[in-house]
Amino acid sequence: MMKKISLLLVLVMLLSIFMVGCDNKQEEDKNQEKAGLSKEDIKVGFIYVGPIGDGGYTYAHDQGRLYLEEKLGVETIYAESVEEGPGCEKVLNDMIDQGCNVIFATSYGFMDYVEKVSKSNPEVKFLHCSGYKMTENMGNYFGRMYEARYLSGIVAGLKTESNEIGFVGAFDIPEVVRAINAFTLGVQSVNPDAVVKVKWTNTWYDPTKEKEAAIALLDEGADVIAQHQDTAGPQQAAEERNAFSIGYNTDMKEKAPKAYMTSAVWNWGPYYVDQVQKVMDGTWSAESYWGSMNDDIIGLAPLTENAPEGAKEAIEKAKADILSGKTKIFAGPLVDQEGEVKVKEGAEMTDQELLEFNWFIKGIEGKIETK
């Protein structure tokens, strides 16, 4: 009997020692996380929806990745042309197996898969672009691109002679709908008679489809083409027809020099540096980030000689008014295509309403199928 009791006591003591050891290990892990990581301990993964050579959206993100490497000296890897579907989950797990402890997923359609993988890998920091879901170790980020879209709309509104402006849109999701509305409000601020015609391609990256959609808009009378697409295909169509263009994502001047006037552009690098530096400092936490022109995450590329007379002055004034808060882009009164008042005079759309945007303002010709 005494032997059994002694054995039991030994087992209890061993179990206590084991539990204390586990608690200490967990505490050490927490303390290490709070203390941060060195650049040698960091490996950052980037998941792209298109190829880095698209000259647009994915190219802009990859420039941000290279900026991160340059500024912080951390190791990075990337996967390009990743499907916005179940295959994304495998890519995420493969990156974790390769040692990535910070992962940026750069397209809306990755969101649900990032959320799932984040829950089973709490030690990894995930940042998802353009979505809204969050977990304890998954944040989201985007920029108030509608500010730069509004400015680019001013250029288009001053340039058009037919008062018909074409817009090639990827998908009828809130991000793109918001962009088209902001662009149109910019157009209307200087040319209330102009209309913006929209055609959807239902793809982020397909140079042929993007160009074909632009050609259809040009055939219908548009003399300026804008876009929410990843390549310069729409602008090249404009150049071939002696029309003019507004780009997106990057400065696309070299892609269609005779048509291009300016672009609404992304500058991801400083944000990537900021987030990884916080991981290194042990101060990172999941958050929802929506930067503005004040943060330099977005902006307008320099105007070219194709831009209309007076555009520079009009842009500078409008930008100053946005930055000062004098101009609220989505302030009422705002009326939809059917003439219904959606935002009353004196009211302003909330961030949540902007993130769920699913209607077009009056002055836009085109339909939103997804509501």
Automatic annotation (TrEMBL):
Keyword Membrane assigned: no
Pfam families according to UniProt: Bmp
Superkingdom of source: Bacteria
InterPro entries: ABC-Purine-Binding, PnrA-like
CDD domains: PBP1_BMP-like
Coiled coil: none
GO cellular component, one term: plasma membrane
UniProt keyword list: Signal
Domain ABC transporter substrate-binding protein PnrA-like per the UniProt entry, residue ranges: 43-320
Keyword match Signal: yes
Transmembrane segments: none
PANTHER family: ABC TRANSPORTER SUBSTRATE-BINDING PROTEIN (PTHR43208:SF1)
Protein name: Nucleoside-binding protein
Organism: Desulfonispora thiosulfatigenes DSM 11270
